[in-house]
UniProtKB/TrEMBL annotation:
InterPro entries: DNA_brk_join_enz, Integrase-like_cat_sf. The keyword Cytoplasm does not apply. This is Tyr recombinase domain-containing protein. The keyword Ligase does not apply. Keywords: DNA recombination. One of its GO terms (biological process) is DNA integration. GO terms for molecular function: DNA binding.
């Protein structure tokens, strides 16, 4: 018999499990019959499906607690149960639910065996009245816990409800019944209506949650020209890395610096400082890398970025891996060489990406005629798997991680898009088996520009990438279903897409047009289209790079994604045919709009 009545968790080693089902699988025929007969007895007075499921779950847990057959339960077992359930950290209601079932079982099994278990009287229910009331400040959530709640969701309604519950101390039903005319945005107060008392009360909320409430009402964001030019520009959008929305960024320089220098800005790219990323002092200026920086993996949770260097010019024989830790300082981060790999067949090495699975890091690329994945967490690097190149062309997109699998898009020599994945569960590289038959066509390949090799991810199942139609050189949006292993051809978009890894948690990736003044965001509802979120004009020519908050044009002009909600003066929501809602907006002429542009409006209306 267990010493404690345990909690039965619904996850094991990161995977969802049904603990009751696992216990049920181990029941012998005798226990199965007793359980079946007891549940039948209980159903006489309670026919509810949910109640029956609860009885079964508790009985299976009790069987696991006993660690013996149910038919062998004795009076001492009920004494031990009474003691352990009392010590349990379950809620009062939770403990009483368990007591109710076990007490019923004790009387029922006693009747079957013609035995009376005197210790059943020791299984006493706890009083619940007042047990959930706040008795001390320790019962209240802290500001840190409140901040965690806010960050745990990107849903505007959820954020608003959390803020109102926190600030007003209202009952859940009071907050859920609120209408916009109950909120005074000038006086910062809210009128709460109580069904319990039949009266209302007015309570204040702080200025700092006003934005969360107003954002739920209506939200318009667009790009604002910051009016300055960045002297540093990345070779592709993946190598402009946003650290904070306040304007701190790292950037690999693509100009005369040949992609070997890394810079830092704390003021939205108004000025830059070169970082020392050569701790071994082997480069000419003792600050730069020996080879071109080709890919990066940002781990914002731990304030670490891993980089891989490889010239990728057809003459490369080796590559380097290093990491930058900005925990203590963003302007003077700690740079650590992890290691190098050399000795490849001359002029045969191409490294396309670096990625993280669990706590380990890996690179993927091509060596001679093999596609390779190396584990590069520490030196010496370890080969995980290789795959004969076959008909795969030289280009890979950057990739995404789903679970323990890395997904990338490649082109084969029959001009088809294929999914290449590395499954770390079995350390195997593979080309999607069905891509040859369920592909978007035999006339598509990856664009030549590395800027168009980004892959976005909806967080659920769909990958987004750009493919080029060979017959007319037009580019299109493609999406790939991981679960269905199938492609869908979307609309024509000549865009560069952000990497999934460079978008903040809960934020969908953006994309910028390469020849027009348009910025988009992926659309999880209409997967063949992109949301047009801005048509602001670049200062010079076209766009060059994008992050969650910042946008850079080819000339280095910088733009910031800002809240322009205050520029909307009025919004009237009505319904048309088929009860379809529409709105008439009155807004400042500073906001450029056009057909197909996406503006988020959220409200409660009838």
């Amino acid at each position: 018999m267990k010493k404690e009545f345990p909690f039965y968790k619904s996850s094991l080693n990161g995977k969802r499990v049904n603990p009751s089902a696992l216990i049920e699988e181990r029941l012998n025929s005798s226990d199965k019959k007793i359980l079946k007969d007891f549940l039948l007895f209980c159903s006489i007075n309670s026919s509810g499906k949910k109640r029956a499921e609860n009885y079964k779950r508790v009985m299976l847990q009790f069987k696991d607690f006993l660690e013996k057959e149910l038919s062998k339960v004795n009076n001492k077992d009920f004494l031990h149960f009474a003691e352990t359930i009392k010590r349990s950290e379950r809620t009062t209601n939770g403990k009483n639910d368990v007591r109710d079932v076990i007490k019923k079982f004790g009387y029922w099994i006693g009747d079957q065996k013609e035995i009376k278990f005197s210790n059943l009287k020791l299984i006493k229910f706890e009083k619940t009245q007042g047990s959930n009331k706040i008795k001390s400040p320790n019962d209240l959530i802290t500001e840190l816990e409140f901040d965690k709640l806010i960050r745990s969701t990107s849903n505007l309604m959820h954020k608003t409800l959390i803020c109102l519950l926190w600030e007003s101390a209202g009952r859940p039903e009071e907050v859920l019944k609120l209408r916009w005319n109950d909120i005074d945005f000038i006086k910062n107060n809210v009128k709460l209506h109580s069904s319990k008392t039949g009266i209302f009360r007015i309570t204040q909320y702080k200025e700092d949650i006003k934005n969360e409430i107003e954002n739920y009402l209506i939200k318009l964001k667009n790009y604002d020209n910051l009016g300055h030019v960045s002297s540093i520009k990345p070779p592709n959008t993946s190598l402009l890395i946003e650290l904070t929305t306040a304007g701190e960024m790292y950037c690999v320089s693509s100009q005369s610096d040949l992609n070997i220098k890394l810079y830092y800005t704390a003021n939205k790219a108004l000025s830059w400082t070169q970082l020392d990323v050569d701790p071994s002092n082997t480069s000419g200026d003792n600050k730069s890398r020996d080879h071109k920086i080709s890919a990066a993996w940002h781990d914002p949770t731990n304030s670490i970025i891993h980089f891989v260097d490889c010239d990728n010019d057809g003459t490369a024989d080796d590559y380097d891996v290093w990491k930058l830790d900005y925990t203590s300082s963003k302007s003077a981060p700690t740079v650590t060489e992890i290691g190098s790999d050399s000795g490849a067949v001359a002029n045969s090495l191409f490294i396309w990406d670096i990625f993280k699975i669990g706590s380990d890091y890996f690179i993927i690329g091509k060596r001679s005629n093999l596609i390779v994945v190396h584990k590069v967490t520490v030196a010496p690097f370890v080969v995980q798997d290789t795959l004969a190149e076959g008909d795969i062309q030289n280009d890979f997109t950057y990739g995404i991680i789903v679970g323990n699998i890395y997904y990338s898009v490649v082109t084969d020599n029959t001009v088809r898009l294929n999914i290449l994945d590395y499954d770390h569960n079995i350390t195997t590289i593979a080309i999607s088996a069905s891509s040859g038959s369920i592909h978007p066509g035999v006339d598509f390949l990856l664009p030549a520009s590395r800027n168009q090799h980004g892959v976005a991810y909806d967080g659920l199942n769909i990958l987004y990438c750009i493919g080029l139609r060979k017959s007319d050189s037009k580019t299109f949006l493609f999406n790939y279903s991981i679960s269905g292993d199938s492609w869908v051809l979307g609309g024509q978009y000549d865009v560069a897409i952000m990497l999934d890894r460079n978008a903040a948690s809960g934020v969908l990736e953006k994309a910028f047009h390469l020849s027009e003044a348009r910025v988009y965001q992926i659309d999880v509802k209409q997967i063949t289209q992109l949301y047009l979120i801005s048509n602001v004009s670049p200062s010079q020519s076209n766009w060059n790079a994008i992050t969650d908050t910042y946008l850079q044009d080819i000339g280095g002009g910088m733009f910031e994604y800002k809240d322009f909600t205050s520029k909307i003066y009025d919004a009237e929501i009505a319904h048309g045919r088929m009860n379809t809602p529409f709105t008439n907006l009155v807004m400042s002429d500073e906001i450029k709009v056009e057909a197909g542009m996406f503006i988020q409006i959220t409200d409660q209306y009838t």
